[in-house]
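Q: what sequence does this backbone want?
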């Protein structure tokens, strides 16, 4: 046991140190701000078919998944600060969003939320159900909802490869990672789970490398190729880049993405099992008291049969050293589903009950979109 702990600790330290080396050294030289990540920038006339997951990079760079058009859109928002974080909880944010779109709370869907750390401004990707219109809204430090004008946005669009039976059917995440943008999604039939890699600078009209994934689902006891990565983060371990992804029912696995030819099939390494009946939503890393934690929040579709807590939405944190574990796949560490803690380094996080979406403002300060008895509230929170 002592030997295993030392091995995990050493691997975790190597991995954590590697996180700091994720840079953007392939950005276009001589350009400033978000423009350095983009090439052949388009001015205006941006239409998003079906707005999806989002994330921020430096200097106001916003990455958006367009699920209907199977593409990644990168926007130079021009939003670079100064930082003005949300001051207090905003009750009934779904009602306020509906009012901004001439609808009620039940007629809109908040698809995702992203926080621009440089400005503190909160961005919401929203679909108006009555006509399927996709919009991008903002929430400022006082809780005021505003509209971001996509029609005038400076942007590039990169199409993800796939057509016919191999058409992109879903994009579950998009994030900046070193010299590329990584996306996860689903296309085709067999080997439907996909990872996409787009080099920097992102060039309008360009395409991406595509990789198929195979993952051992610990709770199911078998290798699977169709279930997509639901949430992910890019990390570095021993100088190599990996996607660490979480799947429904709920393994956490890592996939190497360096030096692969487009079309390659990647077999992931499952390192943690969080229990069946969950659909992960967001994932990030933070540091507390010298320890690095991987956080994920999930939508528990088995809540009525086997509840974990007061809400179907819950989250947990996992000691990052598990990502370097020697016990993998069939032998991967399993969360104790009958308790809030256990084994060591796995804990249910109470403040994440009810949380549908979460994003970091800084290391341990976050913004959460919380389900509160059917209404949605937007609030700042501090991680334990």
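A:
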């Amino acid at each position: 046991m002592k030997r295993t702990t030392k091995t995990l600790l050493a691997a975790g330290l190597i991995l954590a140190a590697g996180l700091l080396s994720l840079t953007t050294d392939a950005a276009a030289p001589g350009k400033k701000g978000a423009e350095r990540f983009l090439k052949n920038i388009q001015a205006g006339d941006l239409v998003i078919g079906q707005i999806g997951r989002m994330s921020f990079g430096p200097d106001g760079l916003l990455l958006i998944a367009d699920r209907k058009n199977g593409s990644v859109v990168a926007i130079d928002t021009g939003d670079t600060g100064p930082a003005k974080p949300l001051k207090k909880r905003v009750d009934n944010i779904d009602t306020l969003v509906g009012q901004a779109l001439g609808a009620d709370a039940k007629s809109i869907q908040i698809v995702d939320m992203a926080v621009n750390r440089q400005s503190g401004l909160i961005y919401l990707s929203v679909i108006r159900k009555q006509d399927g219109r996709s919009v991008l809204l903002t929430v400022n430090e006082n809780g005021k909802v505003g509209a971001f004008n996509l029609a005038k946005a400076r942007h590039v669009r990169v199409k993800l490869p796939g057509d016919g039976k191999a058409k992109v059917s879903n994009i579950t995440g998009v994030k900046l990672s070193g010299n590329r943008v990584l996306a996860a999604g689903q296309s085709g039939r067999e080997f439907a789970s996909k990872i996409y890699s787009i080099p920097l600078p992102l060039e309008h009209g360009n395409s991406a490398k595509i990789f198929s994934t195979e993952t051992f689902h610990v709770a199911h006891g078998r290798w699977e190729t169709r279930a997509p990565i639901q949430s992910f983060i890019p990390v570095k371990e021993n100088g190599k880049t990996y996607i660490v992804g979480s799947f429904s029912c709920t393994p956490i696995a890592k996939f190497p993405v360096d030096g692969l030819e487009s079309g390659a099939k990647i077999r992931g390494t499952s390192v943690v099992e969080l229990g069946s009946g969950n659909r992960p939503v967001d994932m990030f890393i933070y540091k507390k008291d010298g320890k690095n934690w991987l956080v994920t929040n999930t939508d528990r579709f088995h809540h009525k049969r086997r509840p974990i807590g007061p809400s179907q939405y819950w989250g947990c944190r996992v000691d990052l050293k598990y990502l370097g574990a020697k016990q993998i796949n069939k032998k991967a560490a399993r969360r104790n589903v009958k308790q809030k803690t256990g084994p060591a380094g796995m804990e249910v996080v109470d403040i994440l009950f009810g949380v549908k979406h979460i994003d970091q403002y800084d290391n341990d300060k976050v913004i959460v979109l919380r389900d509160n008895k059917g209404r949605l509230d937007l609030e700042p929170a501090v991680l334990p």
